[in-house]
Amino acid sequence: MSTLEFKDQKLPSLDHYATLAEKFIPARHAIFTTIEAAFVELLESRPAKVLVVGAGGGEEIVRLGQKNQSWSFVGVDTYEPMIELAHKRISANAPQANYELAAIPLADLEETDFDAATCILTAHFVPDDGSKLALFKDIRARLKPGAPLAIVDGVGTSGEPRTELLRRFWKQHALLNGADPEMVESNAENFRKVAVVSTERELELLAEAGFSDLQPIFKALAIEGWLAFA
């Protein structure tokens, strides 16, 4: 599966990654709160196994693992330094979490029968050349029937006026949150390399991968999220 390599981007220090992400991603905290609320309702606080696609940084496991100690997590990410950061952040912020992490592509994960999955701000790094569809199919194949996937992605069509306007809003949002102007420009350059697709195309790919009953759960500027059911 071809991807835009995380390591090839102009990135801040990994130690400051989570702090800076809060400045750049609109309503980032609400993303995780909304997903936790949905999973608590759908999983009914029973023991559950959650797949985390793009687990580098550990944010999902930190947020979901702090209170939901009956859940276990298996996270995959292709970038080893981000997996190392995830271990550090989980150990410091959710030491009670039951989790495993692996620096491998999802396609190499043998484990299946997950009760839920997350794919947060990850799939938009995967190009729509068959690779994005393959990723969604790989997630679907590892879920129990009816299990929810919480997916949040940047969406849009590069060059389209509305998309470009939302991206300019995004830059202003980061500046108003105190982000360094040079870092804002660097991240804007990163975003031009990200393989975002339109909302319509994202939903089409999810449906083609075997997901149904797609429910919108998040929208902030050029970032949208859904619950999709296997």
Task: Give the helices and strands, then pairings.
Elements: H1 17-24, H2 28-43, E1 48-53, H3 59-65, E2 71-76, H4 80-93, E3 98-102, E4 116-120, H5 131-141, E5 148-154, H6 161-176, H7 181-193, H8 199-208, E6 212-220, E7 223-229
Parallel strand pairs: 1-2, 1-4, 2-3, 4-5
Antiparallel strand pairs: 5-7, 6-7
Beta-strand percentage range:
15-25%
CATH architecture: 3-Layer(aba) Sandwich
The CATH homologous superfamily corresponds to Vaccinia Virus protein VP39
Across the major sheet, the strand order is 3-2-1-4-5-7-6
- SSE succession: HHEHEHEEHEHHHEE
Q: Give the CATH class.
A: Alpha Beta
Q: Helical stretch count?
A: 8
Largest sheet: 7 strands, mixed
Count of spatially separate domains: 1
The low-confidence parts are 1-12
Over the alpha carbons, how many angstroms does the gyration radius reach? Answer: 17 Å
By DSSP, the count of extended strands is 7
Average per-residue pLDDT, rounded, comes to 89
3D shape = globular
Which fold name fills CATH's third level, the topology? Rossmann fold
Separation of termini? 22 Å
Helix content: 40-55%
Task: Please give a structural write-up.
It is a single chain. It contains eight helices and seven strands; from the N terminus they run ααβαβαββαβαααββ. Helix content is about 40%, strand content about 20%. Strands 3-2-1-4-5-7-6 form a seven-stranded mixed β-sheet, with helices on both faces. The protein is α/β, with parallel strands linked by helices. Helix 6 packs antiparallel against helix 7. The protein has one domain: 3-Layer(aba) Sandwich (Rossmann fold). The N terminus is likely disordered.
